[in-house]
């Protein structure tokens, strides 16, 4: 499997989530399973079936997080100068059609959450911004039509 680039913040967030799932939620779900199993007839026991499904979801998420961490690489530098958009850059852009400003941190797909200002470097906008400088314009074709943005500012996030 190829390496998964993470910011230090993203790496620490995954570690915390894994710890909570493993040390808090997993034992709680096991207790719920054992309590529900004591009620007998497991195939018709809704509490047992619900706890079993919750345990399966929990174990799947724990495996996902372990896989991410096993392949994670925390990126602390770049060969691009700080005046260029790169991984872990905070980029402020303006939509040229409506004047709306937005600010994003460019992160990996694992950390991406556009609603919280974290844009994946593999998203169409993320790819278009990489390597660009303040003042540069980027043009995208989207399902809603063409979009154009100008880069207003670039700052590097603390590592």
Question: Could you list some keywords that capture this structure?
Answer:
159 residues; alpha/beta; Helix Hairpins; Chitinase A, domain 3; 2 domains; five-stranded mixed β-sheet; two-stranded parallel ribbon; 3 helices; 38% helix
List the helices and strands and how they pair.
Blueprint: E1 4-6, H1 8-37, H2 46-70, E2 72-74, E3 89-95, E4 101-107, E5 118-120, H3 124-129, E6 137-142, E7 145-156
Parallel strand pairs: 1-2, 4-5
Antiparallel strand pairs: 3-4, 3-7, 6-7
Helix pairs in contact: 1-2
Radius of gyration: 21 Å
Q: What is the count of helical runs?
A: 3
Distance between the termini: 25 Å
The first-level CATH class of the largest domain is given as Mainly Alpha
The largest beta-sheet arranges its strands as 5-4-3-7-6
Poorly predicted segments? none
Largest sheet: 5 strands, mixed
Topology order in helix (H) and strand (E) letters: EHHEEEEHEE
Integer average pLDDT? 88
Helix content: 25-40%
**Coarse morphology:** elongated
Number of strands: 7
Tell me the number of structural domains: 2
As for the CATH topology of the largest domain, it is Helix Hairpins
Question: What can you tell me about this protein's structure?
Answer:
This protein has 159 residues and is of the alpha/beta class. The chain has 2 domains: 4-74, Helix Hairpins, CATH 1.10.287; 89-156, Transcription elongation factor, GreA/GreB, C-terminal domain (Chitinase A, domain 3), CATH 3.10.50.30. The chain contains 3 helices and 7 strands, in the order E-H-H-E-E-E-E-H-E-E. It has helices spanning 8-37, 46-70, 124-129, and strands spanning 4-6, 72-74, 89-95, 101-107, 118-120, 137-142, 145-156. The strands form 2 sheets. The protein has a 5-stranded mixed beta sheet with strand order 5-4-3-7-6. Strands 1-2 form a two-stranded parallel ribbon. The mean pLDDT is 88.
